[in-house]
Structures are given as structure tokens and as C-alpha cells.
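Write out this protein's structure.
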Amino acid sequence: MKKSYTIIAIILLVLILDQWLKFYIKTNFQYGQGFDILGLSWAKIHFVENEGMAFGITFGGSAGKLFLSVFRIIMVGVLAYMIRKLILAGESFGLLISFALIIAGALGNIIDSAFYGVCFTESTYHGSPAEFLPAGGGYAPFLFGHVVDMFYFPLIDTVLPDWVPFWGGESFRFFKPVFNVADAAISIGVVSILLFHRSFFKEPEKEEKSKESLSFTDGTVATDVIASKEGE
């Protein structure tokens, strides 16, 4: 039970942080507005929205948006079932936390897709910040809301030298995607599983031991093996 409460607490903490920050950005910033974090040019708050997957990846227009929203909901249900089974199986706490982060991140972006279109006015360039629960209704129907992103870390922003094949003289920026707390939680959870819990994906080895191989410490074989040999 202690593990269950801790997992629930982690999910709620990530969700609260994710939604609080999205709400603050949505209601206080114009689309595209932002600022440097601690005055650093490579660490920014930059408000954008996306209709698709994590890190601003899009997926197949309106039909793809609906499919993605439904798929996320189904996957959260599957992951919740898995984490319950993992707790009962006594899996490591690190693996449980990794799955909890993935669930929390998926839920955070599901809330955006499901409710933000209904609850907010649209965010636009050079316009006013979005209004929460507007009298005239939101900017999109249920499950068609946009996901709010705000973290932007262009660690490298330069022009490639002319001698670089194919891309010489062109601008190069790393890291370009804008993301949110939910995206970060999903990424940390997935990377943690791949780096530290790869044994989770391995099937347990089947140990097939013949009765003839069973023996006591004094070198004598088990009595059932002896009996079977005497009956031959």
C-alpha cells in the first residue's frame, strides 16, 4: 500500500505542476511570447501550442488529432493496469516511478486535448492572453484542444561552415522542439526504463530441471528418482 500511495502522489505532483504552469502561461502570455530563464539565451520560456504529439510533432490533421486523443486515453488505462500488476508483483520502486511519470505525462497532455479547447479562448499572436471559461465558449470541441508547450532550449544556434557537406552555410539549431512538463515526464520515464530497467522486457528464463539432476548435499540423489530407477 505504501508503494501505491507514493505512485499516486508522484502522478498527482507531476499533474499539478504541469497544469498549473500551462494555465499560467495560457492566461498570461500571448502566443509566441516568452522570456529568457535567468537571463540565459539558450534557456527560454516560449509559449506555443501544438495539435499533435510530444515536442510539437503533428499527426494527420483532425482525424489524426482525434485518433491520438483516444489512443492516449486507452494507453493510460493500459499503463494503469500494468503498474497495478507491477506493484502486486513486487517490482523495483525505480521501475514503478518510471511508469508513474509516463502515466502522469500522458494524463497532462490528455487534459489539454480534452478540455482546453472547451475552457479557453484561442491564443493568438499580438492578441490578448486567453480567457478561462469564456461566456461565448472555447475555441474547439471536446478532444480537439491544443497542447500548451513552453520550454525551449536552443543550446546551439549557429550557421554551419561552408565546408560542411549538404548543409554548409545554413543555420543550425539544437535543441529546436518546444515542450512541457508532461513531455519531460514521459521522456524521463521512458529513458529510465530503457537505461536502468531493460530486464523488464526480457522473458524469464525457464529453468527445466530433470529429476535425475536433483541431489542432496551428501551426493545421494532424491528418493523419488531412486524409486523410479528401482522400478525399471
